[in-house]
């Protein structure tokens, strides 16, 4: 059991034995067997999206699914109210839904559990040697837990060394759905010009609230200027995502950040109006160039779900839009547009990111791909 | 013929002969005859709202309506596709639609004309002695034309002295629909703490684009991060609305302002996410108090359409909302909520204002009421 | 204490002592005191609408409100998430919410309770002498319980004689929200031409499902071709509503009826596509005339909430519409349009009725007004 | 140049020389060259969908595009406001938009022209030897023009013999978007039980009206019970689609049909509530079986865009839904559900069909595939 190079012998993977990233030896093994993965909370919105995206994944295969008590013991097909456009994957449809206890036949566990139980359950799995990739908020701010966006902060994987779970167990989180698109759009600016302050107003889609989630009576013909704890989450998580690994710990970015969040009658895709103050001066075309040329180290790993390009800047005067760009790069792309001078801070622009794919299931899967590619998953 | 006090002998109207505001002599006259008014562009959305709001107005009566060529010469009822919830007012329904030429039998002219023709037509009416109150953008930034919101800048009426139209003719504008609610929420803060910078992201309803306006294909299940010239308008008009009359001219406010505008699938009501930097420090409760105690001079004039209170601060954690507050104070109120410390500027909050009533027809009518009450309309 | 004639001495009320409708003696009493009424289930959507409509009612006053356990013991204002456009009535806002037990200080009880408990609770109130007017489905099909629409089947009040509750207690229901508008449109046709078959496809608004009701994820950008038990309810209730009182019991109409029900992303107002087969031949203009001239006996009672006209036929080729006509006659009117020959049955047309007002709260209040006017409520 | 068998030597194609369907000789040719096709009206909604669906088509390639005057002479990319989710196909993006005159370098012409000009233009192309497949309504009811749905009425191709256009020119139409899904659901019932009467109420999506099409002010939070000429089209076209080729002409089905049409705030997918009277008695399970076993002759042709299964019957009690099933079988499938006894006619059910794919662009392409496979296109 070991990590693996899916590319070829000359791949640019870092092989420094002092780093957590391991050498690659046994690609033959991979060719025989995909990584067995489990989905916790498989009946919810994010859980369904995980099941759908994993259905034809070349590196992983769903070997078990778990959900809350009322779904346990019956086939997934009967337990779930499937709402994805593509039909429920046959293979998973027949699986018996199990309890989310750490005795599942898999190595990686994707957790789309409700935060009311996610904290303890995820820990229990890690302690039994599972690789836990969580979409829940519970452990995001834990000191030795990375909050990973592969294109941004792959270096946070180093913190895993301090986790000390047995048997290769680990616990990894991804940021909140509204944070991921924001941070992807900010990262090139941070790298090139430095970020002093970020002001964001979000217009978030209803799928972000799960199911049943937002009552139609509340949101049809309306905008709700409030999402519980969301502004706090953005202000809390963004500096960690954009932070760096230094001296054995994750050091947060020192930028100021302010968020106002709203819910809009849109099915999928979070639109965000962003203003930034930069540390170094630049022109609008520099900003656009920074986005277009953004090519972080993870690009060379050629991860299966990686969007290409990572960021798409649109010239059209009324782009990006949830309706038109939610499926950009199969939902993994980040759309940016309307960059303009900001009379108060420096620049303003709009970001669009798919909250269900890039912001949740797809983001978690991309993280798993990174772990596999880096040889951190043993199975 | 002269101005008029609709209240009683002891009214608190300013009678200083040096001010443009005139003494009040002939309330009897008023009791005999309402001010005859005309509506230009009566078939459009704002035009319909004007016709509806004026239908039972105690001080004014619609004596003529005008619209573009294809509607001329037929009864209003046949020319208009009525979209108001209340039935088309009978009196107006039967009126023949006329051309928008300055020979209409009225004294005040409300212009809801398209900006492609509003500029010249409005000027022509003023030059023939009509009191023109315009909802169009054409003359808003003209040096000697007030951009009036009675609760904010009644002093701009002084500039009328410099207009020099014959026979009591004058030309008055109101700000863009997205500017009015914003400025009403800002005014108490400006007065109490001083405004250094204002950052606003708007979520504007489709009625703001008129009819047919926004195609349903464009906006259903979507947010469009662009409204032509809207950001520029907000950045341009706000400093004038919040400016003051000094030494014979309107001096703009020196605050910085930045706007990002979006169109959301909401029928009526513009929601705005606002952040402000103030000149003097204050606590959140001071902000709320400033809104609640806002009582500008025009309140004493007891204008018929004046909301009371002018600004309503809501404690609920998810207010204000277009759906719930668009009819606040019959659509003339300004709803504010969610005031919070802003980590970059000083404070942030949300404003909701009805773009069709407060932001257009109702705002224009309130201005007319101010003129009448101040004795500036002779009929 | 007795019934009352709110009109004048020469009112056309039926005074036949053999009928349940009683003579009117003590209008003085009424002038002193409105009928005290209670609202059960006051925090739900229909409950709120009842509270709002009763706030300024000239004949009744809300003296108590009741709701489920979690709301009991706190002021109504705190227990309710108010969603009406007009502010919560001050008088009611302060009332302590009570348990729905038959010891409330009122005479009439409006029940907007959930059907899971409405059945027993309503019965308990009737047995204690309360006049119960129910919006719930539980007792609608009971043999000795009228399902009342005042303009249609006032004669069903006769069945009350058989109820035998003490102290003037009685139990009255109104039909399902989707049935009321349908039956109001059908009634003139039944009277003039006879009904042989009715085929209806409904497009029902989300408010009909209460709150939280339909998840936004389910209905935004969608139509759901199913509402639990709704088709059965329409097929079951319509013949009773259109039935007649004969030989001491309610005899159902013998027409055939078929319903297909859908939920559409509309806030208020149920639209229905109806086809009818009539017993006697007629022309389209006869149908329209029947609607326009519809003037059932209850019109002479001049009930406070009665719409006038009861049915409005629109000539416009794309009317009626939920958005434009939901507030027709303050939400009590029935809008009809697009009558056309049906190649299979005889005629087809569209009906629009406000499900929250006419179809629920307003309909129940109209029934109460009928009872009061007929002298059936003693207080 | 000749027809072609894409399958293999043993294909079940009919080779009777007396039928229009020709023998297959030169599959080598096909391997060298795809059929060159042009799209007329390429900038509209259906035109875009055609361009998108044809982008990677294995049998056809877009060699030219045409549109109205204002788009001519500039690259397609600049002429079109692309609204498809997938990016504009590169190959087509660069093409110069041409005038819709019969000198285009292609053999098949897909017409998505506006009906104001489609009639003459399509005829002109046919007369110059082009194979015209029209999405416009102009020639649908022409006596010698087939209105083709390959799964239903392949035999109507016989009427082409009577067209007498030179050089293999022909003119073929497809039915209106609301007719196709309806007829596909009806066809198995017609074949097995006979159709006596069909009653349909449609809930049609806004994309059916093109762009800009339905104003958002008209349809947001609303249902509009009218689509110009749509009921007439359904009642007129359905009997022709379900008709048969007899004695050299298309004989219409003799069933009765009644339609009521509405526009709902849904982006894509027409939902229809259908009631049918059958000639022969059957049970609900017979109906379902008829749908599930529906396997018309065209299935054996293995057309590239053919859905499989053609009709999907859903057991779920609230299916089919536009949101969930618009992409069924890549938008070419027909979804049916909720079959129930109808107390007036015999059975009722719901049908869902994608109006842009199956109902327009995809339907036209499927017809082209049929022509190619049958050897009717020479290039």
Report on this structure.
The structure is a homotetramer of 379-residue chains. Chain A has 379 residues and is of the alpha/beta class. Helix content of chain A is 27%, strand content 21%. Chain A contains twelve helices and 14 strands. Chain A has helices at residues 27-32, 45-54, 76-79, 90-93, 115-127, 150-153, 177-193, 216-219, 230-241, 284-292, 322-325, 357-373, and strands spanning 35-40, 60-66, 97-98, 108-111, 131-134, 170-173, 195-204, 244-246, 249-251, 256-263, 270-278, 311-314, 334-341, 347-353. Chain A has a six-stranded parallel sheet, sandwiched between helices. In chain A, helix 7 (177-193) packs parallel to helix 9 and helix 7 (177-193) crosses helix 12. The termini of chain A are close together. The model of chain A is unreliable at 1-32 (pLDDT under 50). Chains in contact: A-B, A-C, A-D, B-C, B-D, C-D. The interface between A and B is large, with 43 and 43 residues.
Task: Describe the structure concisely.
Four copies of one chain form a homotetramer. With 379 residues, the first copy, chain A, is of the alpha/beta class. The first copy, chain A, has helices spanning 27-32, 45-54, 76-79, 90-93, 115-127, 150-153, 177-193, 216-219, 230-241, 284-292, 322-325, 357-373; strands at 35-40, 60-66, 97-98, 108-111, 131-134, 170-173, 195-204, 244-246, 249-251, 256-263, 270-278, 311-314, 334-341, 347-353.
């Amino acid at each position: 059991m070991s990590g693996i190079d899916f590319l070829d012998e000359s791949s640019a993977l870092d092989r420094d034995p002092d780093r957590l990233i391991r050498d690659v030896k046994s690609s033959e093994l991979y060719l025989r067997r995909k990584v067995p993965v489990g989905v916790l909370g498989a009946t919810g919105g994010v859980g369904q999206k995980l099941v759908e995206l994993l259905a034809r994944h070349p590196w992983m295969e769903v070997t078990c699914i778990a959900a809350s008590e009322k779904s346990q013991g019956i086939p997934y097909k009967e337990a779930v109210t499937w709402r994805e456009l593509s039909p429920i994957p046959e293979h998973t449809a027949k699986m018996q839904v199990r309890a989310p206890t750490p005795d599942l036949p898999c190595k990686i566990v994707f957790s789309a559990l409700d935060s009311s139980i996610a904290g303890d359950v995820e820990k229990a799995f890690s302690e039994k040697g599972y690789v836990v990739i969580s979409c829940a908020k519970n452990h995001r701010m834990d000191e030795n837990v990375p909050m990973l966006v592969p294109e941004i902060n792959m270096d946070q994987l180093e913190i895993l060394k301090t986790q000390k779970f047995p048997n290769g167990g680990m616990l990894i989180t991804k940021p909140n759905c509204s944070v991921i698109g924001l941070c992807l759009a900010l990262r090139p600016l941070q790298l090139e010009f430095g970020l002093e302050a970020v002001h964001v107003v979000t217009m978030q889609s209803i799928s972000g609230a799960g199911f049943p989630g937002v009552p139609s009576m509340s949101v049809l013909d309306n905008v709700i200027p409030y999402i519980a704890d969301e502004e706090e989450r953005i202000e809390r998580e963004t500096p960690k995502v954009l932070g760096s690994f230094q001296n054995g710990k994750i050091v947060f970015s020192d930028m100021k950040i302010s968020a106002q969040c709203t819910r809009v009658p849109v099915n999928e895709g979070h639109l965000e109006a962003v203003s930034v103050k930069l540390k170094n001066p630049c022109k609008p075309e520099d900003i656009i160039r920074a986005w277009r040329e953004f090519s972080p180290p993870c690009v060379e790993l050629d991860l299966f779900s990686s969007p290409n390009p990572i960021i798409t800047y649109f010239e059209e005067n009324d782009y990006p839009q949830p309706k038109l760009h939610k499926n950009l790069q199969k939902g993994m792309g980040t759309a940016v547009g309307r960059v303009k001078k900001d009379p108060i801070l420096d620049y303003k622009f709009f970001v669009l990111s798919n909250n269900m794919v890039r912001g949740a299931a797809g983001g978690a899967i991309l993280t798993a791909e990174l772990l596999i590619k880096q040889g951190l998953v043993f199975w």
